Amino acid sequence: MRRSWTHWARAVAVGAVSLAMVAACSGRSTTGGSDAADGQVTLKINFWGDFGLQDLKTKYESANPNVKIQLNSGEYNAQHEDLQKKLIAGNGAPDIAAIDEGFMVQFRGQADKFVNLLDKGAASYESKYLPWKWKQSLSADGKTQIGLGTDVGGLAMCYRTDLFKAAGLPTARDQVSALWPTWDKFVEVGQQYTAKTNKKFVDAGTNLFNPILAQQQVGFYNEQDQLQLEPGPKVAFDYTVKAVQSGLSANLVSFQADWDKGFTSGAFAVLACPAWMLGHIKQTAPGTEGKWDIATVPGGGGNWGGSFLTVPKQGKNVDEAYKFVEWLVQPEQQIEIFKKVGNLPSQPALYSDPAIADFKNPFFNDAPVGQIFPKMAQGLTPQYFGKKHGPTRVAVENVIRRVENKTLKPDAAWGEVVKEAEKAARS
Amino acid sequence: MSTTRAAPTPPGHRPAPERGNTPADERRMTWRNRLYRFDMRYMPYLMIAPFFVLFFVFGLFPLLFNAVVSLRNYRLDDPTLPYWAGLDNFSRLVGDEDFWNALYNTFGIFLLSTVPQLLLALVVASLLNRKLRAQTWWRVGVLLPYITPIVASTMVFSVFFSREFGMANWALGLFGVGGPDDPIDWRADKLHSWIAIATMVNWKWIGYNALLYLAAMQSIPRDVYEAAAIDGAGQWKQLWRITVPMIQPVVLFTVILSTIGGLQLFTEPMLFDQNAQIATGGPNGEWQTIAQLIYKVGWKDLNLGYAAAMSWALFLIILVVAGINYVLTNRLSGGKR
Amino acid sequence: MSARRAGVVGRAPQDTPAGIWTYLFLALTMLFAAFPLYWMLVIATSNDEALAKLPPAVVPGDQFMTNVREVFSLQDVYFAASLVNSLIVSSVVTASVLFFCSLAGFAFAKLRFRGSNVLMLFVVLTLTVPNQLGIVALYIVMGKLGWNGTLLAVIAPGLVTAFGVFYMRQFIVNTVPDELVESARVDGATTMRVYASIVLPAIRPALAVLGLLTFVATWNEFQWPLITLSGTDFPTSMVAVSDLASGNYVIYRRVLAGAFIATVPLLVMLFIGGRQIVRGIMEGAVKS
User: Could you report the predicted ipTM of this complex, rounded to two decimals?
Assistant: First the structure.
């Protein structure tokens, strides 16, 4: 009998210890990363893809021994949704949150939930930024600046010289740029390529739609935040459908495994390349070094994507967080990121810095990326992105995928776009 | 239910010692008496209390509270809406294409998974029911999928059903279906995506159900089969004519279990998506199930009130379908007796 | 009709020696059951190219440690922590289910108290209630308690199960003789004493079965942990694996290496306790 009692006692003890462990763990989560006792500060920064922060983190940590940086890369949509949830919940948000321009309107509408960087002395940076970039993250009354810009996308076309050559197309970047002054011409070139090689020309319909939409005066929403599908989205959509119908698209879903493999296997010969895309290509298809080059985008300039770093108010170390953000946007770091992953800074003074202006990217056949992208970023009138821009984009991309999958007839497609976009606007 | 219960005479009622009782003894007596009375009368309730309290707080209460939430405007991103929504959430539900589409998908996948799953489980069970060498080894073997996390296996199947490099397309190509020039896109239309997801569900549950059937089969008295020998029934006929009707209660049990499970399908459709984070279950919701839609509405669109209404609708649907299945299966497997 | 044939059909299946076809079909079933796990291992041990290879790679590679190291070094996935978290959650839930359910099962099986029949009926009825349906409200409740995003949110709803009570009651009814309980009572043992010294030792096999089943089920849970823990520093291993597969670089050898590691504890359990799990499932079937 005694034996059973000890058994029983042991079971209780195990249970109690485990519960204590749980309590300890959950307790730790509520105190966040900070530990006032020894002055150690952990800064958590949420972003997506590759912001080129890996080496900078080490550098900053060794210069500031009391700070630990925790990099937290996630999926593009998920990071923004997660931030929104945490802002509502009032806790759990990272110390620093990256926000894409496509979601900026939604978040600057909740400016009270972010640290006003003007209070921290960010006003001095206004003159350094592209004016439109500065305004994108400014609250409607102009009194609160919630984020400092990191990069702008710009827009160009990356193409595979080896595949172009095999198809009998020119390979020099000027000649290639001359092939497609307009999207109509671009589709024609694609048809030639496909006829000759029996291979697909572009990666995905959605990756035609987005850059073309980015070139329009008005995107999904007008400045009154009303859904406005014509003419902007309609123009982009029509070109996309035309390209898909001509069999140009490899119908891959961007940022997914098959798409990544397509870079290596030559499943497509060209794709729209904002500056931030360069890093992704380099990382996913290291074996294709030297086979890529960069030409101008049909239809003139444009900008696709670009981000900001914000400091949510609920963080426990907002001052340390701002210090790190401020450090990151300094020219030295911005140039390092540019060289590392291709993200183009949003401070025009840097464009004439030789480190950028003379930079040729060896992975892309020594293309003068320091010339190509800044040209576009400077003369730009940016689009307004509505509060529901993010979900609307997902909804319309889904319709495009259905056309590519041939589960939706092209002539019925526009009706679907209208329906799905309206649904997303209401969601 | 057992009817015999221990009810011994309380120790305190043993004949009191003849020696004179001191007040201290008496006090001790009543204390023990009280303890005994407490033990007999209240201890059982104390023993079942943790279960009922915890179950009520984290199981039953949320279910009931869900009803309240479904009648409210509960938007995480817009607390300014009026508190009560009345039946708005439910009337929206009736006209919501996404809901009906998800319901359709859920049933499609449910049929494609439940029927083959239970039939194959029967066959496997009848094979396991033979006199086998290394009997335990086989039984444990069929449980491999049961203990494998669905998250892990879905990742594998997700690659397996990839359009460009998937093994499924490669294998079908060997038989002249699809092939590298015209590969099947498992994520492009309803039928193919349903088949892919149903395959995952079948894989997971065949072994488990087979063991349930096997247990029932082994409790069938041997003489039943001996009697049937007169008819000259073969093994196949034996299975359908004798075994299945004899294990009918367990068949009913598995039908209900897979109804409840199948209508709540979440992990497989969720992680089958190339970008699981958007939770749309395909570009046009080709394979979005109700559970997935509830997740999207609640935690992507942040509309918890509407998600709660959907949960209630799903609850009612499960009740109705489980009922129908019960009656149908009862008829089908019992009718031949 | 030959005597041989008559002999075969007259026998119960249990007494019919399995033929070559039976073995063949069962072997195919095994292959089907084991294949995804095996292929998980193949990809988890290979480099990037193996995935795109057609005909598919069938032999494990030598990159396992590389892949594992990558998985553990991804800061944003918290993989190592997630394994500990899953271990904590599954252990606490299992211990609690075993304790509370055996306690309640004992009370329902052997003790007399008013309302026991009605309360037991309630337990049986709730067996079939899918608790996933209350998930929205559960999230709100956890929010009010301030538990969302902590392991408590995942542990609390699992602490007791109706199945556990039901299973324990059945087992105790069948294996603990009334006389034993009675004689202990006569000796002056309290109810808890009877539970500890008579019931617990007698139901050890059932505890093993229920424990294994509970542990496996808790470890594998996905939907609720995803809702309450995603985006925090405290994922369970299932949430962490799904995190590996989201993001802008989905590298399947990593995803499947993570998936494989998260499956290993369960494979070990099946290896050690397979017999018990099989018996548990089969007993559950006959008695219900």
Answer: 0.89
